[in-house]
Amino acid sequence: MLTFKAEVLKSKQKSDGTYNVKIRMTYNREVKRLATNIFVRQEDLTKSFKLKNPKFIQEADAIVRHYQEISAKLQLDINNYTLGDIMAHLKGEQRKSQEIDFIQFSREWIASATIKGVENYTSAINAFVKFLGTDKLNIHQLTISVLRGFMDHLIKKREEKIRMLQKQGKRIPSNRIVSLYLGSIRHLFNEATRTYNDYDRDIILIPHSPFENFKIPKQEATRKRAISAKEILKIYQMPYQLDAKGREKKGRFNLAKDCFILSFGLIGMNSADLYSCIDLNNDVITYYRAKTTDRRNDKAKMKVKVLPIIKPLLEKYRDRTGRRVFNFYLHYTTPDSFNKAINYGLKQIGEILHIDDLEYYAARHSWATLAVNKVGIDKYTVHSALNHIDEAMKVTDIYIERDFKIENEANSKVLKYVFGSGLQK
C-alpha cells in the first residue's frame, strides 16, 4: 500500500533557521521523500517536530491529497511500479505546473557553460533584457512577435550606430549582431527545451518553439581584411622606431611590425597561439589552435616550419627560459592584452602606410588570399593550412595522420612570392 505523510526532519535545518516540509512516501516497505515549497520555523512545530501551525498543516494536507489523486490513476495494483517509478511520475507532474523563467535559466546556463564564445550569449541576453525592459520572462511568452520586435530593435540600434560612425568618418563594421544575438537566443531556448522536456516520460513543459516559423537573418560576410603582397613587404621593410641612443624601442609599434610578419610567415598563426605555444623542435612549431581546439577530435593540431625569413624573429623573441617558444607571456599578462597591444601598433603602421584599419587578422586573411589568387594553391590546401574544420571530411580525418608537408610547401611558395627567393635562403 502506498502512503503519504508530511514530515519535518530535525537534522535538516537550513542556514537561515528554516526547515523544509517533506512528503514521505512509503510503498512495499521502501521509503522516499519529496521536497515541497513549504518552509517552517521552530515556532511552527511541536517539540516532537510535528506541524502545529494551521496554515502549514492545511498546505501540506493539500499536497498529500494531490499526490494521492495522481497515484490513484496509476493503478498500482495492476502495474508493476517501483517506488522510484512513482516518485519520478510525481516529480514530473510537479514540474508541469512550474513556471520557467527564460532569462533566469539563460543566466544560469551561461554561468555554468564552458564553451568558447560564451560572452556572446551574455551580450545577447543583456540586449534582450534591455529590449524587454525586465529581467523576467516566462518561457511561454517568448513568441514570434517578441522575436520580431527584438529583431526590429536591433536593426534600429544598428542604423543609429551607422549614422553616428558616418558623422565621425569611421569605418562601418559588418552587421553580425542581429544574426548573432537571435542565434544565441535560439540556442538558449533549445537548451531550456533539453533541460525541461522529458520525452521518455511524456513530460513536456515546453511544447512549442517560436523559432519553427521565425527565420533568423543570415550573417553578413565578414569584412575582407586581406592586404597586398606589396603592402606586406612594406611592413617588413619598415624601419623600427628607435630611442634617443639609436637602439630599437620596446614598444607596440615595433612589436606589431614583427608579430604581423611572424603571423604571416607562420601561415596566419593567431596571437593567442603565438602567446601560448610551447613546442619547437627542429625548426617546427607544433601547437593546438586555441580558437577551435575544444571543437576538434585532433585538438586542432598544427605543425608549421619556421622558414629562413622568420628565423631572426624567432630568435629575437625566443623564450630563454624554455617554458614556451616565444617570450610574449613574460611581458603581457593575457593573450587578450597581447593582441590589443599588437593591434594598437598596427593602427600606427596603417596610418604611415595608408592602409585603412590595419589589424592583426589581416596577416591570416592575406596569406589565404595570396595563396589562392597569386600563387595558385588549391582551396583545399589553403583550407587545411588555415586549420579549418572540414565537415565533409570529418570521418575520413579520423583515419588520417597529418604530416603537414603539403601545407608547409604551400607556405614556402607564398613567402617566396611576397619576399622573393633571396630572402628564403
From TrEMBL:
One of its GO terms (molecular function) is DNA binding. Residues 100-193 form the Core-binding (CB) domain. Residues 222-416 form the Tyr recombinase domain. The keyword Amino-acid biosynthesis does not apply. GO terms for biological process: DNA integration; DNA recombination. It comes from the Bacteria. InterPro entries: CB, DNA_brk_join_enz, Integrase-like_cat_sf, Integrase_catalytic, Integrase_recombinase_N, SAM-like_dom, Tyrosine_recombinase_XerCD. Belongs to the 'phage' integrase family. This is Core-binding (CB) domain-containing protein.
